[in-house]
Design a protein that fits this description.
This protein has ten helices and eleven strands. With 341 residues, it is of the alpha+beta class. The longest helix has 19 residues. It folds into two domains: 170 residues, no CATH class; 152 residues. A six-stranded antiparallel sheet has the order 6-7-8-9-11-10.
Length: 341
């Protein structure tokens, strides 16, 4: 259980996570083989897992030198004379700008004769990892981290620091999966993130994040983009609301023109929705910005499908979302209201 006695209940920064990773890596150094065999074995298992992520062979008896904030990189570990582990470590923040490429270039310049193995470690939730993958980083995500720590624990390791960090990751994972055993009215930010992450398996083009607005903001997801009359149409989840959106970000339109397009898209959606089995209604507040809600979607009480225990029926919810997507697909091919008449 993650409670007040856990070290990482109080050491909450990314630097604390950096410290744990550096600590565990350091135990893999061959000098600890006899001094503390259990921790040495734990460190080796961790290092070899990171090598496996990078498609490299495991080590058996190597010198390990760990450095923090070398050339601004979070963690750099020299593995014998052959490899350099370059770890960019994140909890709830994301990579920014070209930092991943800059770190890799700087470390390669510092170690021109070594093979650089870049790893992007993220223990929080993130919508996608396109930047990290494009920059050539292997991914060490929370589930992966949990898996290898559990494997180390099964080897018989007894260590309070290790156990505390393992409990922290387990707590975060359970928070993320809580959407499965809580009523949607009780979902937290992490619950919504877990729901969106699961939806990405069904809808790979889905992205999600926090959307700030004057009403206090919400956790949102958006996907199924496609054109209609020069505007982008798509679905968006705004926590408890599922909405059909319309947006144009490349051209400027006066508010009255935007409102006209929104109203015509709503008529088109209504015409396409006659046999879908879902309900769409106009929003109470009709905006005329560059991104507008054309219709609210529901299945009577709610668009999130529930089972007999009033918990999410995930598969049925996905089926319902596919119905909403089909309505949009049908509407996109209908140009009856494409012109203002």
């Amino acid at each position: 259980m993650f409670d007040n006695s856990n070290l990482f209940r109080w050491a909450t920064s990314e630097l604390s996570q950096d410290a744990f990773i550096c600590w565990l890596l350091s135990w893999a150094d061959s000098s600890y083989a006899n001094k503390n065999p259990e921790m040495h074995n734990a460190g080796k298992i961790f290092v070899n897992y990171l090598l496996e992520l990078s498609a490299e062979s495991p080590i058996s008896n190597e010198n390990i030198v760990v450095r923090k904030q070398l050339d601004s990189a979070d963690i750099v570990a020299e593995i014998g004379k052959s490899y350099i582990l370059l770890i960019e470590d994140k909890t709830d923040t994301s990579e920014h700008g070209d930092q991943l490429d800059r770190y890799k270039t700087a470390i390669q310049a510092r170690y021109p004769d070594r093979k650089i193995l870049p790893i992007f470690c993220k223990t929080g939730n993130q919508s996608n990892y396109k930047k990290a993958k494009k920059s050539g980083y292997s991914l060490l995500l929370r589930k992966d981290f949990l898996h290898i720590l559990m494997e180390i624990k099964k080897s018989g390791l007894e260590n309070n620091i290790f156990d505390d960090f393992l409990s922290l990751l387990d707590f975060r994972e359970k928070e993320t999966q809580s959407f499965l055993h809580l009523h949607p009215n009780d979902w937290s930010r992490h619950s919504w993130q877990g729901f969106f992450l699961s939806l990405q398996d069904a809808f790979p083009d889905l992205n999600w994040g926090y959307v700030a607005n004057a009403q206090g903001g919400f956790m949102g997801a958006w996907w199924h983009f496609g054109a209609w009359c020069g505007w982008q149409t798509y679905l968006q989840i705004e926590e408890k609301s599922l909405v059909m959106k319309l947006g144009c970000w490349t051209e400027k339109h006066i508010p009255s023109a935007r409102a006209s397009v929104r109203n015509r898209w709503l008529k088109t959606l209504e015409a396409a929705n006659k046999e879908s089995g879902i309900t769409i209604t106009p929003p109470v507040r009709r905006g005329n910005g560059r991104s507008m809600t054309a219709a609210l979607v529901s299945s009577g009480n709610d668009w999130i499908q529930l089972d007999k225990n009033q918990l999410i029926d995930f598969d049925s919810t996905v089926i319902f979302l596919r119905k909403a997507m089909a309505v949009i697909d049908k509407a996109r091919s209908d140009l009856t209201f494409s012109e203002n008449k």
